Structures are given as C-alpha cells and as structure tokens.
Amino acid sequence: MRSENPNATQSITQVIAASSLGTLIEWYDFYIFGSLAVIIGQQLFPSDAGASALINTLAIFAAGFIVRPFGALVFGRLGDLIGRKYTFLLTLVLMGGSTFLIGLIPSYSSIGYAAPILVLILRLVQGLALGGEYGGAATYVAEHAPVGKRGFFTSWIQTTATLGLFLSLGIIVLTKNMLGSEAFADWGWRIPFLVSILLVGVSIYIRMKMHESPVFTKLKAEGKVSANPLKESFQKKANFKMVLLALFGATMGQGVIWYTGQFYAQSFLENTCKLDFNESRYILLWAILFATPFFVVFGSWSDKVGRKWIMLTGMLLGVICYRPIYQYFIDATNVREFEKTSLANVSEPVTERGLATNKTDSLITTTVVKTLASGMTFKEVKTETIAAGQIGSSSESAVAIKDVTLSSSTYIMVIALVFFQVLLVTMVYGPIAAFLVELFPTQIRYTSMSLPYHIGNGVFGGLVPFIATLVASFSGSTPLSGLWYPIGIAALSFVIGAVYINNRVDNNVMD
C-alpha cells in the first residue's frame, strides 16, 4: 500500500476521492448557514430586531464552531478505538441529517423563539459531527499516503473546506437567480439545506465501499490499539506538549486566516460595504476558483522544504496586509463621496406604502437607483414612518444605501484582493494536515490531532465573523476595528510557531 507501484497509486487516488467527497459535503453542510446568515436572521428573529438579528444569527453560527472540540474528543476516541472508516461515516450521517432538518424549521412568525432554539440545537449537532470528520479524513489519507508525499496527498483533503464553501455559494446564487429575490428570501433559502441530503446519500454509498486504513489495521492486528486514547493524548506530558504546540503555534493562527479571508471578507463586503447579494458572492466564487489549486501547490512544496515556514509566512502576510486591504474595500465602495463629483443618472423613484412594525403607524419606502460615471450603481432607500393620526407629518425618517454594484476595474481589483486572502488560506491550510498527523503516534493520532485542530480552526477561527462584527458595532469603533482580533491571534501564533515548531520534512515519522 505504501509502495510506488501503479496499484498503490490507483488505491491512493480512490482513497482521496472517497474521503474528499464526503468531507467536501460536510463542509458544504456546515457553511450554508454562514453564507445565508443575513436571510436566516430575518427568518429566525422578529422583523424589528434590526442589527441584533444578524449578530444573534452569527452567534448561532459560532455555536457550531465552539462544540467542534467536543466532537473531536468523542469521535477522535472512537476513531482510535474502532477505526477511521466507520467513525467518519457516522459523522457524515449526523451532519447530513441535521442540515436537512434546518431546512425544515418553521420561521419565527410561525413558532416564535422556538425557531432559533431548534436551529441552535441542530447547529450544535453539526459542530459535533464536523469535530469528528476532519481528523478522520486527514488521518485516513495520511496513513495511505506514500512516504515523502504526505503533504501532497493530504492537501487534497485541505481543498474540501474551501470547495465546500464554493459549492454552498454556487448553489445559493443559482437558487436565488432561479427563484428571484423575494421567493428566495421567503422560502427558497431552504433549498440548499434540503438538497444536501442527496449529496450525503451519494457520499455514504461511496464511503461504505472503503477499506480501513492499513496502518490502523496493522496496529489492530498486533493488539496495539490504545485502550484509552484520551488519557494517552492528554495525560502524557510529551504528547500533551505537542497538542498545545499544535494549537498555539499553528492551528490557532491558521484558523483566523481561513475565516477572515473567506467568511469575514464576504460578510464585510455585504454588510459594511453594502455590496449587492450576488456581487459579493461572485467575488468570493472567482477568488476561490483561482486560489484553490494552491492548496495542492503548497502541500506538495511542504514535502520538500518543510511545513513550518510556509504556514507561518501566510500568517505574517495576513497580519501585515489585512488593514490596508479592508481599507481599500471601504474607500472603493464609498458611494456617497463619489456621488458628489460623478453622479451620472438617477432613476425614477419607486414608492411603496405599508404598515410599520407596530402595525399601527404608516411606512413609506422610496427607492431610487443612482448610477455614477464609472458605472458603479447603488440603491438609495428612504423610509418614512408616519405616526397614526398625524397624516402628512413624518415623525421619523432614515436613508440607507443598498445593493452596490462595482465598476469593472474596481470589481477586478476587489476579486484580486480577496484572491490574495484566499491564497494566504492555502499557505496556512495546505500543509497543516500533514504537519498534524506527523506530530502524533498512530494509536492516538485521531484524538490528538483533532482536538488542537478544532479548537484552533473551529473556536479561534470560527468566531472571527461573530467577534469582528460585534467589535465593529461597539460605540467608538471603526469598520476596521474587528480586524484586530484575527490580526492579534495570527501574530501570537506566528511568534510561538517561529520559536518552538521544528521545520519538519517528511522523514518516516509515521512508520
């Protein structure tokens, strides 16, 4: 299995294909929620919740990340006791079932606060399942991979997280374009959740045909399977030291780079820069499409030059470049400033009348579309609330910017800057699976590598959208204030990793 003959090559290809497909679907299931946070917030909370609906929805999204380490402990232990194959088959079933059920949960208008509570429970199940999936898939592929090529082969698993996000964005945009904005916001957002059950069914069928890892099979035949993986992982001083080093010197920094470059970038463009729904997602889709091959490039390169400095360079570049990049996003979408000198056209106003949230006052919404000389467009939406009994007298009014679309040159530049952020993701994430599996012995590898990965990636990284959005909402903060969280975490991880991590090149450490 570990030799360089054609049958071995065919076998590792099948292993990667089966493992990657299942892992991609799990990431797809996990990330649909984040990609639809704004719309889901409108469904789960009262219509007058305002910005708190988004923050509360991001908190529910973050809950799935917080429980991932617990999933790593539970399923990591199972994986080290009964094997890799059946453990991450179980996680796939749990993930697919909970994702499907989220698509069936009634809205707040139907069942009140039971809606967000039920979704929170299902997000927790998703987090537990994902906590067991990644470590199993990465370990399974690494234990099949030929010596000297673990970085290359495990990097294919690393592509699945970003490709899962890509797939979720693609299906969301396709569904929205087919149904229209109103139908999608009303009920169409459920479709990406519901179709996941078909993807999961295909993946389960494929994974049922997989064989157990040869390294684990040999260990089991020799009677060397760990009797207590948790105890061996965390009570043995030398191994626990490696767990802490993996967390603080690698996965913590990798996590914040991953979620800043992809999730927070999209959230910032949509919520802070007010980009059109499709515009922000197309930008991320193009950036992911161009950057994804670099997971394999950096994974393969790490087999030759070591894992350490590739990962740490990605972290350092994030620390240096994030604030200038996001400042450009703000400047490039400052339509109020551009409007002063380059307003080219204003559409006829469209006025809608209805009732305010309290069902008593009148609400008048007037929308105009403005076009700048550069080709950039945006909607200016004015809302006036007329108190009952005071017809003709506006008691409250507000003007908001919505649905900004960029000029061609700015659009390309924004794609390039998001691409650069995803490129940093490939640097920190491409080599990390090989780095983690090589740190720990076979009998406790699933448990030992899963915990630091899911704390670093899931907790520190997964909290980026929530914490950054929350910090930016504080009084006295600026739109860039939220970036201090990922910058600080990445900087700390860089320093610890630079001092304490060895620049390991594959040298039979798993044999």
TrEMBL record:
Q: Where in the cell is it found?
A: Cell membrane
Q: Which SUPFAM superfamilies does the entry link to?
A: MFS general substrate transporter
Membrane topology note: Multi-pass membrane protein
Instruction: Return the InterPro entries for the record.
Output: MFS_dom, MFS_sugar_transport-like, MFS_trans_sf, Sugar_transporter_CS
TM segments? 27-45, 51-74, 86-105, 111-131, 152-175, 187-206, 242-261, 281-302, 309-329, 411-437, 458-477, 483-501
Q: What is its main location?
A: membrane
Keyword annotations of the record: Cell membrane, Membrane, Transmembrane, Transmembrane helix, Transport
Q: Which domain of life is it from?
A: Bacteria
Domain Major facilitator superfamily (MFS) profile intervals: 15-505
Q: Which Gene3D superfamilies match?
A: MFS general substrate transporter like domains
Q: What is this protein called?
A: Sialic acid transporter NanT
